[in-house]
Amino acid sequence: MAILLGSIADDYTGASDLANTLTKNGLRTVQTVGIPDPSLALPDVDAVVVSLKIRSVPATDAVTAATSAQRWLRRRGASHVLYKICSTFDSTDAGNIGPVTEALSHAAGGGIVLVTPAFPETGRTVYLGHLFVGGQPLNESPLKDHPLNPMHDANLVRVLARQSHGAVGLIDLTAIAAGPGAVKTRLEALRAAGVSAAVADAIFERDLETLGEIALETPVSTGASGLGLGLARALVRSGRISPSGAAPADAIRPVGGLSAIVAGSCSKATLRQLDVAERSMPVLRLDPERLLAGPDEIAAAISWAGDRIAAGPVVVAASAAPETVTRLQSLYGREASGHAIETATSIIAAELVARGVRRLVVAGGETSGAAVDRLAIPAFLIGPEIAAGVPVLRTVGNAQGDMLLALKSGNFGGEDFFAAALAMMH
Ligand code: ADP
């Protein structure tokens, strides 16, 4: 079946957030890891989110990857493609939001593109083209000190114009509050005046619903999960989506096999979740210094898990309290120690899968990314949420057969998160 909505996300966590938002708003959604193989067999879905890592790469590389992802999505039938950016408009004067937006629009036949990073649920609103993060204009928010993309201007019409060839205009809240007809008229007037991208105000979700309806009449839009919400609700309202109450339930059809939890997050919430898990399942605390010293600690962990896993879920954790983490970082460097431990936890996850684990919970954003890369999982169907922002995922096109995963970053989930996740994964 043809997909209705395609999206290209400029980073993986943003892709997951969007895929979860689309699912919660009624679309059956698959998230791919990178540009999928032409032959990837999709289940019956309404939307596909292609996860790329192009937020901070050179603009030409971002354009090449995004246009190639768009070709894949168009071939699968997507009539509208959302370029998913960060809700804080992370970019520089060199890109990549402008160059990618223009390249996608050009490849899709041109026209005007609606652009809005508004996502009211997380406090991102746009008024008269100015982005607010919580109660602060973007340039006074912590984003002004972002290490890669410091944001010194809250006026997105100016910000986008600096990284675009074409002219940038504004659709202000007055037009949006007047409804889809007024937005369409304004968009048409801007297009006739030679504008190729229109930054749109949005403060409430209803503004995004209005924008979503009009964006669907164009081939390309650029925005954060908030615009995704607007597009999803507009598609549902249009009657083009089959009622999909069953979508998440379908994603959690039992897969059998063994279950395990691998943790690399050192967040307060994860440390607490590990303490709670210890009461009901075997937990192995890895020795981070030994992990960095060589492969013995990994082999010992696999053997420890192998002895216990047939009897029930086991937990293997690199996670440690802040003092231990700081000490390790001062000895080996922050990046090097983090990367080495991610490699170790991903090897452990892959070995557990090789030993029959089909239900896997991974704690830690980077830790999850490394595990998914090592397992070479091509895509996921998004299921119901275990906790806010953390859905159950069902693998699509996985070489080891169907698996259920929960990938939890940082501070997400309540203290019984691990048991709650496993209770939804059979
Ligand atoms: P979160 O989502 O909580 O930020 P991440 O997985 O993204 O979790 O980041 C945690 C980082 O800490 C990873 O790079 C991981 O490898 C690293 N790490 C895990 N355990 C330790 C430890 N004991 N000491 C130092 N770094 C660690």
Main sheet properties:
15 strands, mixed
Q: At the third CATH level, what is the topology name of the largest domain?
A: Rossmann fold
Overall shape: globular
> So, CATH architecture of the largest domain?
3-Layer(aba) Sandwich
State the CATH superfamily name of the largest domain: Putative sugar-binding, N-terminal domain
Mean pLDDT: 95
Q: How much is the radius of gyration in Å?
A: 22 Å
Distance between the termini: 28 Å
Bound molecules: adenosine-5'-diphosphate
Beta strand count = 18
The side-by-side strand order for the widest beta sheet comes to 9-10-5-11-4-1-3-2-16-17-18-15-12-14-13
Helix fraction by DSSP (H/I, runs of at least 4): 40-55%
* CATH class label of the largest domain: Alpha Beta
- The count of helical stretches stands at 16
List low-pLDDT spans. none
**Helix/strand-derived class?**
alpha/beta
* Overall tally of domains: 2
Kindly estimate the percentage of residues that lie in beta strands according to DSSP: 15-25%
Family: Belongs to the four-carbon acid sugar kinase family.
Domain Four-carbon acid sugar kinase N-terminal: 5-229
Catalytic activity: 3-dehydro-D-erythronate + ATP = 3-dehydro-4-O-phospho-D-erythronate + ADP + H(+); 3-dehydro-L-erythronate + ATP = 3-dehydro-4-O-phospho-L-erythronate + ADP + H(+)
Organism: Rhizobium leguminosarum bv. trifolii
Please explain how this structure is put together.
- It is a single chain.
- This protein is an alpha/beta fold and 426 residues long.
- It has 16 helices and 18 strands.
- 41% of the residues lie in helices and 21% in strands.
- A 15-stranded mixed sheet has the order 9-10-5-11-4-1-3-2-16-17-18-15-12-14-13, with helices on both faces.
- The longest helix has 21 residues.
- It is globular.
- The mean pLDDT is 95.
- Adenosine-5'-diphosphate binds next to helix 13, helix 14 and helix 15.
- It comes from Rhizobium leguminosarum bv. trifolii.
